[in-house]
UniProtKB/TrEMBL annotation:
<feature type="domain" description="FAM194 C-terminal">
    <location>
        <begin position="1"/>
        <end position="177"/>
    </location>
</feature>
<protein>
    <submittedName>
        <fullName>ERIP6 protein</fullName>
    </submittedName>
</protein>
<dbReference type="InterPro" id="IPR029281">
    <property type="entry name" value="FAM194_C"/>
</dbReference>
<dbReference type="Pfam" id="PF14977">
    <property type="entry name" value="FAM194"/>
</dbReference>
Length: 213
């Protein structure tokens, strides 16, 4: 960056290359994006929330509340049963100097612009999955992560009820209002993770109690 702080670094880890974008800070700079040559990439909002997440199958674009704005699949990927969703070009600005343009699996460009000069990094890759059995295994959440997700959903639901109380002071009115769709979806996701994760029955019961309280 013009400040002298490191903006973009490319490193090699075993057999793959990783491109990392950092925020403009001299110390403890947060990571704003990670692009891996195996097809997995993630971009983050300044708040640290996931903005864009991509894999060998496709990707999704999220808002700052964690709600999915759009999703897509790469043309040559073999997915689980479901319709193919094409990618619409995406351009985001990670900060005032670094932007990301996504046009295809092999056409992902990180652009850096400062003091009238520009540098571009092609971080796209052509990783095809010809067999569903070759897909990487799903990441298993740890106990702490699962509890944090459950508490996050619980807090969001409490805030939603608080808004309902303020908008409709009469108990008879706001008690009948259902949670918004994104909260229902997130609740179902946590319950699904609770079922598929390798955790104790006691923790599984605790997570369900937190989410359903």
């Amino acid at each position: 960056y013009p400040s002298g702080n490191l903006a973009i670094v490319v490193v090699r880890e075993t057999k793959q290359l990783i491109c990392i974008v950092q925020e403009d800070k001299p110390n403890n700079a947060e990571i704003q994006a990670v692009f891996k040559s195996d097809g997995r990439s993630t971009c983050y909002y300044p708040s640290g929330a996931v903005w864009i997440n991509m894999s060998v199958q496709g990707g999704q674009y999220l808002d700052q509340e964690g709600r999915r704005v759009r999703r897509w699949t790469w043309p040559n990927s073999v997915m689980s049963p479901g319709p193919h969703v094409p990618l619409s070009p995406i351009f985001i600005s990670l900060n005032r100097h670094v932007g990301v343009r996504i046009l295809g699996q092999d056409k992902i460009v990180v652009s850096f612009l400062a003091m009238g000069q520009q540098a571009k990094f092609n971080v796209g890759t052509k990783v095809q999955v010809s067999d569903v059995s070759q897909l990487p295994p799903l990441t298993r959440l740890g106990e702490d992560e699962l509890l944090l997700l459950a508490f996050r959903v619980r807090i969001l639901r409490l805030f939603d009820r608080l808004r309902g109380c303020l908008n409709f002071p009469s108990n008879e009115q706001w008690d009948k209002i259902k949670p918004p769709a994104y909260l229902i979806t997130q609740t179902l996701k946590v319950l699904h993770l609770c079922t598929t994760s390798d955790i104790s029955d006691e923790l599984r019961s605790s997570v369900r109690a937190i989410v359903n309280a």
